[in-house]
Amino acid sequence: MPGNSKHVSVADAGRSARIGDRTRAENWRKPPRRIEAAECITCDSCLRHCPPEFGAIFDSGLNVVIVPELCSGCPACVLVCPVDCIYVDEEWTPTGNEMWTHVELTAGGTR
Of 19, 52, 54, 98, whose CA is between 20 and 30 Å from 12? Predict the structure, then answer.
């Protein structure tokens, strides 16, 4: 479907811009989500269900993390989490350089 590929490329461009700028989209009204590591069972359901236009969830060592600058606050991950360990993060802090390096390395492929 030609219209679908255009939508995907526009979405990819938006995600790539957010990765390059390391900022959240200004028009996102909802705060990002966060994963409570102590409650997470590392099943990766959230990672597999995060919409590709956001691609905000990553495996990071033994933990699964949400990069707040890439998270729109949609509930896709929350709806599939079997242990309810994903919360709204009203007081999120900027992602550190080490994680951004990981994001940049995986930007072209699987997270």
Answer: 98
Cα 50 to Cα 48: distance, rounded to the nearest angstrom = 6
Say what angle helices 97-106 and 2-21 make with each other, to 10 degrees. Answer: 160
pLDDT of residue 10: 66
- For residue 34, what are the β-bridge partners? 87
Gap between the Cα atoms of 42 and 22, Å rounded: 25
pLDDT in tens, 53-99: 999 999 998 999 999 999 999 999 999 999 999 999 999 999 999 99
* DSSP for residue 32: P
Gap between the Cα atoms of 73 and 95, Å rounded:
16
Residue among 92, 72, 84 at smallest CA distance from 36: 84
What is the average pLDDT across 42-50? 97
